[in-house]
């Protein structure tokens, strides 16, 4: 793919860095033709540079560039602009289906009599295997080795497939298991801030930008790299050279002032920021941070805030590059010439933050004195539901009544074969997990120091608490070892269990059988406390109903306390070995203790050691048997992990001229507000009595080898059966029932959603799903759209959509439709026995109005106006072709 376009505005200039010449497209030169860009937000400057670099009079035009500058007139815009990132980042749960799709596209290319080698990444792709390790073993010196062994046993077929992809596709590299979490590896090792590439004998410099197939790709915004999560579908199109067209977003400025108070962590800060931005309403918008607090806000704290952008709903949470960023690049072992290039390039473009910088202009702003932030946790099921730590017990007890409907709140229950009882609020999982916090050296060091003090006093975790520590990279292990903190962490049960996401994505592993029996038999509200970024209902563990996000030191403190029913700020946290009551303040490390430990333990050496030989992987990875040398994959029809998907079955060279209106559709599900992609396509465990469990059993897989939905995303047969199969999803068509159930009409027979959908498919009946507010919030999970498509759903009608899922639905040829203000599934009194027509599909245009005609069981009908959220002309084309992948495949085959 050519890097540069025709440069109609003649903005190409050169930059000398240590005697090496770089060519770049100058924003100051562009000002002479399209107007001042000085006050543009940095994120929009990145979009503008992207247009200047690729400008070709077709997909990228001078008019696109002008529209970015014209944004300053009203600080918002209705204009569309194209964007093409420098690279793609993937994790293995989303990466495996993406590579499956690429392999299937090669087969499809042969069917269309094209060249399969054209199906090849045209920009660099980094896939980091981080989502598959599970906490089967914990709180022992052998936990890490045991979990890795089991991980490879379960996933050898998937890993061999990824090894094949690494050999088969160009510009596709894999970071093996047991290395770290993709976002932390990206932050500490992969990202360059300013990328460069060779073309026609010249070296071109440009901003490092990326799409990631995980919503927390936004973490890299903390380093001044613009990137955000997209579905695997969009990522595949981007890696194959397709620009993604987007509306120029609103940009919200978030001013940070002051300094954090003693005892307040970066986690507390990010929970406050999340609460404020979610209340502000920033879905689909960019957020840029500015203000005097950035002068002393460490890079890893910025990364923690940026990581949580999906939780506050923004497309990205961006921090400009300044001296803090350069210091971090140097600390992490980046090449000195690269660091000089970053500084020189960004200063030349007016994108470097220093004393001479002017604050950008924004669509709107809000402000936080970070000195007012207090210790917090968030839960029981949404990251934005922040609670002052001092109020945690009262708020939880209120939730027992209001949320969980618990009658005998103070009753405790004995555990078989144990000398303790559990109560509502007992902490049964305490996990230091997730790149959000394990990339933050300050909170990790605080956790280690708290463990050291607690261990010295003789404190231990409660015996019912499953504890784990899963660093996001080996760097964290290195500096904790240097500080002498591994041993006290181990003593409290926080042994390292793996280098991956673990509990944060639901890979918490099983609790003890007797504890599960006690919880389930008595319908208890057990709790988990984790340093993650997601705590959605049903996500962390099937046996835990209340989940709380907290800083790593608080995770350890709650493991010692063992319950949410005691006030951790006032009540004794435990009793020392000499019988003295110990309080949280007695073991909480001071700011000086933390900074001293960091200064003596964290150097460039730890980062260089952590990533030395990163591509080799553990011995199990090196020992995988991989078939190489083939341009197409040899599909194993008996495989339960990797199957050739049906997306291109029967596809012709030409797309239909138009898609027909949807007539006579039945309702598959009616869902409430805040339905997440995890509700739609769970990543966790597979139940034996579920459609997916029955499929695996019928194919000779024992229950102990089911693995997770996330690990089986390369098999559409499993994933179709897992769509809408979360154990906590509630279909209002089947009141009082949890899990993926529906009703078939007109007979009214109840069954699993998959079984009902297949019956409708045999009857050639299209399907509709109804939802509430923020439908599809959460992870950028492309299978939530793929599975919806494969079940025969033609449209989803909701009050609002989360950004990534809306895009993914379009990318899979499913219409996202929006109720107009004041209309909801409830005002329409939808029951699920209706038949639905969607009129206006044949004349589809971006964001057009459509009519939904409801035919009720009593013979009456009603017309309702909807807004079609196919937002751009390019998306209209995707939809006409049946999705983005058929669209791209047809283009490549021409």
From TrEMBL:
Pathway: Carbohydrate metabolism; tricarboxylic acid cycle; isocitrate from oxaloacetate: step 2/2; Organic acid metabolism; propanoate degradation. This is Aconitate hydratase. One of its GO terms (molecular function) is RNA binding. One of its GO terms (biological process) is tricarboxylic acid cycle. Residues 74-562 form the Aconitase/3-isopropylmalate dehydratase large subunit alpha/beta/alpha domain. Its cofactor is [4Fe-4S] cluster. Its EC number is 4.2.1.3. Belongs to the aconitase/IPM isomerase family. Involved in the catabolism of short chain fatty acids (SCFA) via the tricarboxylic acid (TCA)(acetyl degradation route) and probably the 2-methylcitrate cycle I (propionate degradation route). Catalyzes the reversible isomerization of citrate to isocitrate via cis-aconitate. Could catalyze the hydration of 2-methyl-cis-aconitate to yield (2R,3S)-2-methylisocitrate. The apo form of AcnA functions as a RNA-binding regulatory protein. Monomer. The keyword Metal-binding applies.
